[in-house]
């Protein structure tokens, strides 16, 4: 993580405030439950559970989420050497999905207060029920919000009482997860899969040190050794179907990305694999 990200994470790691309650609070509990010292907010993918605006609570559609990330930390009264936010707070970004449309907004973090600026959004047409939720979330996720966090939940509360209840989405484990390839890497550039090959390539690492899956056309198996940030993949054994067109192109790219020693990076439910020379790789998501 870059220094700016570390500074933001430190600045919005919330300290305890008020009295602590027991764990296991439901979405309707006041302020989203207990507030734990040092509960992280940055670097966590938060799934929206529900939004309450003008006293009306609406459950979130699948896909509604928000993540707070580092931006221009340190500018205009940013964090000091000890990582705490300065007089004007620490600047960052909020980005995510309202339930249909993606959004991004500048944020300023100071203590347990997150101030969200005007949002930029995509403009896709959405089903009426989802569009209604998006309008509610857009209204609630703006201005000055008080943040109360526990290990697994976050509640953002506006001065007028509107609130957003969120749940932390855990990072998928490397082993034991089925990963579906969603894009291919060439150096620093990510490319879409060949048209018609979406969803064809997938793999999983077993607890026994085997790598199994489908390259896009043929099923395969290999031995794999896991280190702190690398995978060492042994020779691939696969079925022998003749593969042409998009499936064949995908198979070659995935085979190249799963050859020899590769670096891996996990973030939330995403996995990036990069070859030792940085020239080739892939991005996959947890199913």
TrEMBL record:
Residues 67-92 are annotated as: Disordered. Residues 73-87 have a biased composition (Acidic residues). Coiled coil: none annotated. Residues 44-164, 172-280 form the DUF306 domain. PANTHER family: DUF306 DOMAIN-CONTAINING PROTEIN, HEAT SHOCK PROTEIN HSLJ. This is META domain-containing protein. It comes from Streptomyces pacificus.
